[in-house]
Specification:
Blueprint: E1 3-6, E2 9-12, E3 18-20, E4 27-31, E5 39-42, H1 57-63, E6 71-76, E7 82-88, E8 94-98, H2 104-114, E9 117-122, H3 129-136, E10 137-144, E11 147-152, H4 159-163, E12 171-174, E13 183-187, E14 197-202, H5 203-211, H6 216-236, H7 243-251
Parallel strand pairs: 8-9, 9-12
Antiparallel strand pairs: 1-2, 3-4, 4-5, 6-7, 7-8, 10-11, 11-14, 12-13, 13-14
Length: 254
């Protein structure tokens, strides 16, 4: 964890400090080695949140894009169950940053618990992930901003898309700064219908949207749904025959 409580204040880990866990109140100690990011850890092997996982520099870089009081927020359910969200924005949207592989059962449990949430997934965890994802991006089927939609080809052969195929919430794949411009690829929840719809989103735009508390995720998904329905209807309409076939049709005897 990045923050722990010292006399009522949230503090980051520093050598020699002791503190208490903001979730369970148990003692934690500062871990400040050279090989991992500085963090707080429970004494022994105790972990109070079963969804906890070790953090990487990638996690920390994303968390640090948000105000400190939005980070590592304890989220409570009516049942009394509680978990620590990576980021919970002022508008109540939970943002979870996922680097390691996540079992489908735990992913579904987190989505059910947080409800209003998005995933940001490290699209470079495995050596070939980013290349696979970019390779499967097919034609642009809608190009009127802000709805830039691409269809993924052979998505079942792309490990990142396959891993997140059944998620009912927006999933952003972070591919880093390949050409100097940080780009995320947003997988829309409507992709569960069989086709995978992807939208390129700049890191700056993503951060601005969630910093300002805009209800853009739901609105965007509604818009995508309308567009996909229109594309489906258009595909069902009879298409005019090419010129030569029209000529042959006119010459056929009644």
């Amino acid at each position: 964890m990045k923050f722990a409580d010292i006399e009522g204040q949230r503090r980051e880990a520093e050598p020699g400090l002791s503190a208490t866990c903001p979730s369970c109140g148990a003692p934690v100690i500062a871990k400040c080695g050279d090989h991992r990011v500085r963090h707080w850890a429970h004494r022994g092997v105790r972990v109070c949140d079963p969804w906890w996982e070790p953090e990487t520099e990638w996690h920390r870089a994303w968390k640090n894009e948000f105000p400190a009081d939005w980070q590592e927020t304890v989220h409570f359910a009516r049942s009394g169950e509680k978990h620590v969200a990576d980021v919970k924005t002022q508008s109540g949207v939970v943002i979870e940053f996922q680097h390691s592989f996540l079992k489908a059962e735990e992913r579904a449990a987190r989505e059910s618990f947080y409800r209003r949430m998005v995933w940001v997934v490290d699209g470079r965890r495995r050596k070939r992930d980013a290349a696979q994802l970019l390779k499967c991006i097919g034609p642009c089927v809608w190009g009127q901003p802000p709805f830039i939609l691409y269809v993924a080809n052979h998505h079942e052969e792309c490990a990142p898309l396959r891993d997140w195929n059944s998620s009912p919430v927006p999933v952003y794949f972070d591919l880093g700064n390949g050409d100097g411009t940080p780009v995320l690829w947003r997988r829309d929840p409507i992709s569960r219908s069989g086709r995978v719809y992807l939208t390129p989103v700049s890191r700056e735009s993503f951060l601005r949207t969630h910093h300002q508390g805009l209800d853009a995720e739901d609105q965007f998904s509604v818009g995508v749904g309308v567009i996909v329905e229109e594309l489906h209807r258009a595909a069902q309409r009879p298409q005019p025959l090419p010129g030569f076939q029209q000529y042959l049709a006119r010459r056929r005897p009644l």
